[in-house]
């Protein structure tokens, strides 16, 4: 389990490095380079629009790779998704700017961002299910939380590289070529991830399904017919996590640098510090999920998010590093209360034959609802206002309350092991 969890964590971290480095670049530099004829705010909105495309393609990736995972195994998904995301990320670093090739530049950016999201849509289902289905039932939330540590690690890697580049290069050098370096580095990381994953074994639950001839012939059709309500509820429930995370990690960077005049290094440092603490807390929160249940922690995280959004915005608007860090940290701890346990919770909600498709579609559809729209909505509602952007806080609070309602309609899975249709292990 330790080796499997480590391989899942590293692979997920690499994929999210690819995904997050684009978000940071969109907040800091892609607007003026690829949309130079727009105003600063319109350029940022356009850059966040290309950022959103990756979220829109993630559910499609979960459908494509979910079919592979439910028909041919979880293991092939890990290789194909990592390869696709890595190649698309390297290619982003090679796209000429608008000044060189005109409108073809943002078009290429859109296409490659779409492919990034396609690969990431398959990654989560493969990595989480391979870990969760190997894990003992009493510690499933703990072991399944390790792939969930991958996104914070990927964020720290992506922004650490960006922070080093912005600190070590002049603004002209960073805009000319420095922003491309993290995208090129993704190729080396992807190669390392593929090598690490080459020795992983297939999920025992999938092997049992294959041996008994019980694999789903059309997983998506079965999910739509028999689990559509569950997919919509899980998507709505998880939307707040995406909204909170990308408010802190993406929109706040642009708001702090453009509206408050805070340096990008300070904004990145505040966000990275909060993400590091929340990532380190993930396995400890997951242990609580194994003890007290998944749904109860998710409800607590949603409630905390609803209560904290206005204080977070007020702390951000001060422009003072310590206060901004505290605002971000409170938000991400609420996020961790939910996302530390969802890697165990979602697979337990679906039967094994359609689990890869159902869990991944619900998880990535939440990314469209919460992650794709949030930076765009937040930028729009905060434009032209001199005081704190209370509209952003109100929007996030509404999302948190909607997610709270969705979680309230979902069942608890911890005491209902028989309901997930998993065979008891044979006595040795």
Descriptive notes:
With 428 residues, this protein is mainly alpha-helical. The protein has one domain (2-199, 222-413): Growth Hormone, Chain: A. The chain is built from 16 helices and no strands. α1 (2-34) packs across α10 and α10 (219-258) packs parallel to α15. It is globular. 57% of the residues are buried.
Helices and strands in order:
Blueprint: H1 2-34, H2 40-72, H3 74-92, H4 98-101, H5 104-134, H6 140-168, H7 171-176, H8 181-197, H9 204-211, H10 219-258, H11 264-292, H12 294-317, H13 321-339, H14 342-349, H15 355-382, H16 390-409
**What does the average pLDDT come to?**
84
* Number of continuous helical runs: 16
The shape is globular
CATH class: Mainly Alpha
Q: Major beta sheet, specifics?
A: none
Give the strand tally. 0
Low-confidence spans: 417-428
CATH superfamily: MFS general substrate transporter like domains
The helix-and-strand class reads mainly alpha
């Amino acid at each position: 389990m330790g080796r499997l969890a480590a391989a899942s964590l590293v692979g997920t971290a690499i994929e999210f490095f690819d995904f997050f480095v684009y978000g940071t670049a969109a907040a800091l530099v892609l607007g003026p380079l690829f949309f130079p004829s727009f105003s600063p705010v319109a350029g940022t909105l356009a850059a966040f629009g290309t950022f959103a495309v990756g979220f829109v393609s993630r559910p499609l990736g979960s459908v494509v790779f979910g079919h592979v995972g439910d028909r041919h195994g979880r293991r092939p998904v890990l290789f194909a998704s990592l390869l696709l995301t890595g190649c698309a990320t390297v290619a982003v670093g090679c796209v000429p700017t608008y000044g060189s090739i005109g409108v073809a530049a943002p078009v290429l950016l859109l296409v490659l961002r779409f492919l990034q999201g396609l690969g990431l849509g398959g990654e989560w289902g493969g990595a989480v299910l391979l870990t969760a289905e190997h894990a003992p039932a009493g510690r499933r939330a703990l072991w399944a939380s390790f792939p969930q540590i991958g996104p914070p690690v990927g964020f720290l890697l992506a922004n650490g590289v960006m922070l080093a580049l912005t600190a070590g290069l002049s603004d002209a050098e960073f805009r000319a070529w420095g922003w491309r370096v993290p995208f090129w580095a993704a190729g080396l990381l992807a190669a390392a991830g593929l090598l690490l994953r080459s020795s992983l074994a297939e999920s025992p639950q999938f092997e049992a399904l294959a041996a008994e001839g019980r694999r789903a012939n059309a997983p998506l059709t079965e999910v739509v017919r028999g689990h559509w309500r569950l997919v919509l509820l899980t998507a709505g429930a998880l939307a707040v996590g995406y909204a909170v995370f990308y408010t802190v990690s993406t929109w706040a960077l642009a708001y702090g640098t453009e509206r408050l005049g805070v340096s990008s290094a300070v904004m990145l440092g505040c966000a990275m510090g909060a993400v590091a603490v929340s990532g380190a807390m993930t396995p400890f929160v997951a242990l609580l999920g194994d003890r007290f249940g998944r749904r109860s922690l998710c409800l607590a995280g949603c409630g905390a998010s609803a209560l904290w959004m206005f204080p977070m915005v007020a702390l951000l608007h001060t422009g003072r590093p310590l206060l901004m860090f505290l605002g971000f940290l409170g938000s991400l701890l609420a996020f961790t209360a939910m996302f530390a346990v969802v890697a165990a919770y979602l697979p337990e909600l679906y039967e094994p034959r359609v689990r890869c498709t159902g869990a991944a579609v619900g998880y990535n559809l939440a990314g469209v609802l919460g992650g794709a729209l949030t930076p765009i909505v937040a930028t729009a509602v905060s434009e032209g206002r001199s005081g704190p952007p209370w509209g952003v806080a109100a929007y996030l609070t509404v999302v948190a309350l909607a997610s709270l309602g969705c979680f309230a309609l979902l069942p608890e899975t911890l005491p209902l092991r028989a309901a997930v249709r998993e065979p008891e292990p044979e006595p040795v």
